[in-house]
Amino acid sequence: MHSIPYLQQLVTKALASKKYGHEPVELYEPIDYIMSLGGKRLRPCLLLMACDLFGGDIQKALSAAIGIEVFHNFTLMHDDIMDKAPLRRGKPTVHEKWDTNVAILSGDVMMVEANRLMMLVDDSILRPVLDAFNETATGVCEGQQIDMNFESRDRVSVDEYINMIRLKTAVLLGGLMKIGALIAGASPADAALLYNFGEQLGIAFQLQDDILDVYGDPEKFGKQVGGDILSNKKTYLLIKALELAKGGDLAQLNHWLTLTDFDAVEKVTAIKNIYARLGIREQAEAEMNKYARSAMQSFKAINLPNERKAVLKEFADQLLVREY
Question: Residue 98 belongs to what domain range?
């Protein structure tokens, strides 16, 4: 098995040499721009790890891995438009640096390019790989729409929220691992187990993200702590608090959710105090651990020696042991 740093270097080198097109400049320059903003390149590395897990040739999976990264950044470009986000990784978003129409059209080209890169796999597995990719891409779009629907609703159930993050975040992890397994020639049963491992891991990862947004160290987390609270974002923590709160706690919670003029520190402190009284953090961590256990059960069932699984298991452990 190749090491994680080696796979990251391979992906970084491939992306650095990737050309998306030249003319018209206004169409392709935004693609070069967003792809140059960096990131940990976790998704393409996971696809290569999945291929490597089953003894596949990672060079034959590299185009698909780059396709996944292009697709991921396409979704970020369009998400930024919908969220009216001014920054992405500390730099102006594409629609801010150029304009919304350019960002939409450049994003469309990225989706086309992601499909083209997927089609570079061996013809013998082309149909199942494209089926897995298209099913994944559709799920991500469904999850984004459901998330947008939540913004206009007063109440969302925990089950609805879990389904949303499964689609918006987790199916991509499951899908890319399945693609890597297919390229390596894994059995349908093992490819399905790896898909479930990725999907369940993705749900656990997003739940951890919700927790870190409230309780994380901002320097280690890399984001403003309490941002979800300030924006009334319907995360697992808020949804569970609304489900459990009664009397004074419910009145206070609704007060802060409807208040438009407030002190940020005061609001975050007040909501965290309500969460503490209701044991929300503990329940969120229990939910996260439930999905992490489910992921590892699928992983253990894959018909391979433990030593072959070691690198991917280490990677999964790192994803779910981020410091608070």
Answer: 1-185
CATH code, 319: 1.10.600.10
In angstroms, rounded to a whole number, what is the distance separating the alpha carbons of residues 180 and 61?
7
Q: Which of 260, 235, 268 is nearest to 169 (CA)?
A: 235
Residues 213 and 153 grouped into a single domain = no
**Same domain (yes/no): 293, 147:** no
Contacts of 259 (CB under 8 A, 6+ apart): 267
Do 11 and 152 share a domain, yes or no?
Answer: yes
DSSP string, 244-259: H--HHHHHHHHHHHH-
CB 113 within 8 A of CB 20: yes
Q: What percent of the chain has pLDDT over 90?
A: 84
| pLDDT tops 90 at residue 90 | no
Nearest to 221 by CA among 88, 322, 91, 87: 322
pLDDT in tens, 134-154: 999 999 999 999 999 998 998
Count of domains in the chain? Answer: 2
* Same domain (yes/no): 130, 118: yes
Find the mean pLDDT for residues 170-197.
Answer: 97
The C-alpha atoms of residue 162 and residue 218 are separated, in whole angstroms, by 25
Residue 87 DSSP SS3: strand
**Secondary structure element (H or E) that encloses residue 92, with its range:** strand 91-92
Q: What is the mean pLDDT of residues 117-125?
A: 96
In this structure, the dihedral spanned by the alpha carbons of residues 3, 62, 10 and 4, taken in order and rounded to 10 degrees, is -20
- Asked whether residue 179 falls in the same domain as residue 309, the answer is no
Same domain? 238 vs 305? yes
